[in-house]
Amino acid sequence: MAVATKPVTSTSITEVNAAGIDTQILNERTERHFCKCASCKQASAIDFKIVIWEFAFIGARGQIVWEPRTTSYNEAGEEVRNTYIATCPKCGAAKPANSELKASKIKYDPNHVCTDSCQKATSDHCTCSCKGENHGIKNKVGLF
Question: Where do the structural domains in the chain lie, given as residue ranges?
Fold first, then answer.
């Protein structure tokens, strides 16, 4: 096992692996974030894959320590750092969007049928039987 012998500042699992340091993935999930176009106010949804991983390094007492990190990826599989660019599906404007947009706050209700109100949602709140899988799906936009 290859471990880091000096501090690792990167949040990129690709960069850490390229340096020959062992990593392991702890969890992966998809988060849907919502934003509005600054030009035309069109609501849009953007999906990100969130990967929680850890790497090995030698601690202060010489022991091997695993430190967790989180990396986000857009739908194209590209790593997303502090900002990303979203293209508005209505007016075509390309605007930087804040990466601190709120993830969906979904409440599961097995008795609530998933309808257009969930699928065309423009906010991050919903109570539905789809567990958020379809929430805002009809408002998804592409990234470049």
Answer: 13-139
